[in-house]
Amino acid sequence: MNRRAKDLFIKRLNRAGSYAILIVVAVLVVTPIIWLLLSSLKQDSDYMAWPIHFLPINWQWINYERVFTLTPFVKIALRTAVLGISCSIIVAITSAMGGYAFARFQDVNGNSRLFRVIIVLLIVPGIVFMIPQFIVYSYVHLIPNTYWPWILGALVGSPLFIFLYRQFFLGFPKELEEAAELDGCNPFQIFWLIILPNAKPVIATVLIFAFNGIWSDYLQPTLFLNDQMQLLGAKMATAFVDPHGNALRTVSLAATVIYILPLVIVFFFGQKYILKGLVTSGLKG
Fold first, then answer.
1. C-alpha span between 89 and 21 (Å, rounded)
2. 232 with 80: CB under 8 angstroms?
3. Which of 62, 93, 159, 265 is the most buried if burial means most Cβ atoms within 10 Å?
4. How many Å apart are CA 149 and CA 219, to the nearest integer?
């Protein structure tokens, strides 16, 4: 075998190995999703049967109907969506302001020290702050019957989003800002008219991540809200039971399918912005 043929063989072997790994990973990712979809169409007795039935014996499309009859699913979903969209917009703006300040005013005394605090907050798990927040919110009577904990959290920004914005703004050409300044724009106008319109990939990434964080949250709604004002993630954990208090497992699975559908749609249409936003946010540091 000559060298050229050998190189071609090695190249094809590497390609075959790459495809094999991708196929294995795809199977591992897709199999639980298929299992969820099929299990949501089973009876509880079929779901718990042994040996396991991969396909439903009797297809129970009524499970999806029972999701809406057993709970006010649409009402709770709309409530969660409104809160998620509102807080996402707020945190996208406030985090952009923080990121821009860290990127452009580095000569201000204390800027680097404050940014180190942001980095430290990225490392600390969010659950560490949950009990102190609960105590503070209880003391000022913001829980358990308001959504102020989420609004206040959005108003102060997010360490992760501030970091993403800062990294993006560090790579943004200063010449555009200087030209706008010569045209008579003040710093606030420069930020709104020049900076934000050119930060669409990062803004889209922040909006998607922020909405996903509220839509899929279970722990904070459980701690901060009563049952009448509960969000969808926490409500689904205890909503689907029969009159005797037994869990309706397959109805819960059907609700899970409906629950994750908006996230899949958002990611499907926003994946290019997520990738572009994460890549452009890492150009400079």
1. 39
2. yes
3. 159
4. 13
Radius of gyration in angstroms for the set of CA atoms belonging to the chain, rounded to a whole number = 25
HEC string of 89-151?
HHHHHHHHHHHHHHHHCCCCCCHHHHHHHHHHHHHCCHHHHHHHHHHHHHHCCCCCCCCHHHH
> What count of other Cβ atoms lies within 10 Å of the Cβ of residue 283?
11
What is the number of residues in the chain? 285
Tokens for 77?
Answer: 């979903």
Of 64 and 180, the structure prediction assigns the larger pLDDT to: 64
Residue 284 has a pLDDT of: 41
DSSP 227: G
| CATH 3.40.50.1980 given to domain 70-280 | no
Helix, strand or coil, per DSSP, at residue 108: coil
Residue written as token pair 């795809």: 26
| pTM (two decimals) | 0.81
Reported confidence tier of residue 80, pLDDT bands at 50, 70, 90: very high
Inter-axis angle of helices 73-104 and 62-70, to 10 degrees? 80
Residue 250 CB coordination number (10 Å) = 23
Q: What is the pLDDT of residues 200-257, one digit of tens each?
A: 888 888 888 899 889 988 888 888 888 788 888 888 877 787 777 777 888 888 998 9
